[in-house]
């Protein structure tokens, strides 16, 4: 195969990695916040068990669970393997984001809430104007680690035959072409470098919050 043909196949695979990354964040962030409030509310015991399972079991196993369990138990098979990957990744990462959000919220001194109440602010206003900016500043480092990990974890989708970039490159490797593997590595290094710079910029944006 020519360089152009191999390159096109790899780029198509990387496109799937990018789609999986973006969709996972779109679904896992709000779901993680929901998990967080359930974890801190009356459903605390149940959510502790759910979070323990999601964080303690391999993401690879969760991919297979989402792929096979709906069809076997409820006769509702998920035909799109990419959809399976999005669902499994979103739920898995929501568990990690839940704990990051919880740690950030619980780190805010109670005096901050009390000060907002004294000023006559509503609960929503206190969270939006006082708590949220401080929470964001505190959670950027651990949140950033998860964002970087997710970039690399998207390659796990290959275990359910989602034709992402690493799967494509290993197929070429079995045919005697080794360079696609290094080519793939460069793409992920560039992606993680870009995200690292973005996170540094984000930290700078919230640097004035010292709470």
How would you describe this protein?
With 211 residues, the protein is mostly helical. It has one domain (3-205): MetI-like fold. Helices cover 80% and strands 0% of the residues. The protein has eight helices and no strands. It has helices spanning 3-39, 44-56, 59-74, 81-106, 110-118, 123-153, 165-173, 179-205. Helix 3 crosses helix 4 (81-106). The longest helix is centred in the N-terminal third of the chain and has 37 residues, at 3-39. The radius of gyration is 21 Å and the shape is flat. The model has no long low-confidence stretch (mean pLDDT 90).
Strand content: under 5%
Structural class by helix and strand composition: mainly alpha
Gross morphology = flat
What is the N-to-C succession of helices and strands? HHHHHHHH
- Return the domain count: 1
CATH superfamily annotation: MetI-like
- Unreliable stretches (pLDDT < 50, length at least 5) are none
Helix content: over 70%
